[in-house]
UniProtKB/TrEMBL annotation:
Protein name: Lipoprotein
Domain of life where this protein originates: Bacteria
Similarity comment: Belongs to the nlpA lipoprotein family.
Signal peptide per UniProt: 1-23
Localization per record: Membrane
Membrane topology of this protein: Lipid-anchor
Keyword terms of this UniProt record: Lipoprotein, Membrane, Palmitate, Signal
């Protein structure tokens, strides 16, 4: 999940140019060759680890040759799929993908029945043990991409720290805060930078995958964390529209939601990552 939507003008221009060149290029997708290796982009933890487990333990028996390509940001895995550099990706949730497609004119879709896991978003702090202990004027770092920033603010609201305006959805920003009794200050950072910010802020709301990479556990270290119940932020396998029925993609979808992978998630992550199937 874990997946940024507030791009600079330069990044948007470069992305639009690259996507335009791709659209003008060959129509042949790597997904058109059912005998070729399936190339999947993923963030390293836990998605890359889950895919590597499948590659090492399950793929051969299923007749699937799998190549895992890891990225540390939430943009490249989608542009790589759109451009045909990889066949699929596994790193994001639906609100993020919807926002990405809208802002970039891409046509990436979730593979049906291939939602794999949830990484509970957590609040972490080196100075306080509960959110109510934050002092007035404290600084809280949040992800700067649209959907995850809204997700972070909703988590803070659920814990009584702030109150958002009525009807605010997946695009909430600090400007949509209706009540802020502690006058908290918000520092918007790229999601990958949030763990490194903990020494400079009073608290940070960190995506589960980046927390794990920083040896932080949502189950043990977070002073507040999302509930997995009815949570819309499950991470899934995604492809460029039209490639959902690629037999290789279908094989991977089945493996990603297999009992073996569920057990792997439960054993390895001890609640920091939760199976969504």
């Amino acid at each position: 999940m874990r997946n940024t939507a507030k791009f600079t003008t330069a990044v948007l221009a470069a992305g639009a140019l690259t996507l335009g060149l791709t659209a003008c290029g060959s129509d042949k997708d790597s997904g058109s060759d059912a005998s070729a290796p399936l190339k999947v982009a993923a963030t390293p933890t836990p998605q890359g680890e889950i895919l590597t487990y499948i590659k090492d333990k399950l793929a051969k028996k299923a007749g699937l040759e799998l190549e895992v390509k890891e990225f540390t940001d939430y943009v490249t895995p989608n542009t790589a799929v759109q451009q045909g550099e990889v066949d699929a990706n596994y790193f994001q949730h639906q609100p993020y993908l919807d926002d990405f497609n809208k802002k970039n004119g891409t046509d990436i879709v979730a593979v049906p029945n291939a939602t794999v896991h949830l990484e509970p978003l957590g609040v972490y702090s080196q100075g306080v043990k509960k959110l109510t202990d934050l002092k007035k004027g404290a600084t809280v770092a949040v992800p700067n991409d649209t959907t995850n920033e809204a997700r972070a603010l909703k988590l803070l609201e659920a814990n009584g720290v702030i109150k958002l305006k009525a009807g605010v959805g997946y695009e909430a920003t600090p400007k949509d805060i209706a009540s802020n009794p502690k006058n908290l200050q918000f520092k918007e950072l790229e999601a990958a930078q949030l763990p490194r910010s903990l020494g400079d802020v009073d608290a940070a709301v960190i995506n589960g995958n980046y927390a794990l990479e920083a040896d932080l556990s949502p189950a043990e270290d977070a002073i507040a964390a999302e509930s997995p119940k009815d949570n819309p932020y499950g991470n899934f396998l995604a492809v460029k529209k039209g490639n959902e029925d690629d037999p290789r993609v279908q094989k991977l979808a089945k493996l990603l939601t297999s009992p073996e992978v569920k057990k792997f998630i439960e054993d390895k992550y001890d609640g920091a990552v939760v199976a969504a199937f």
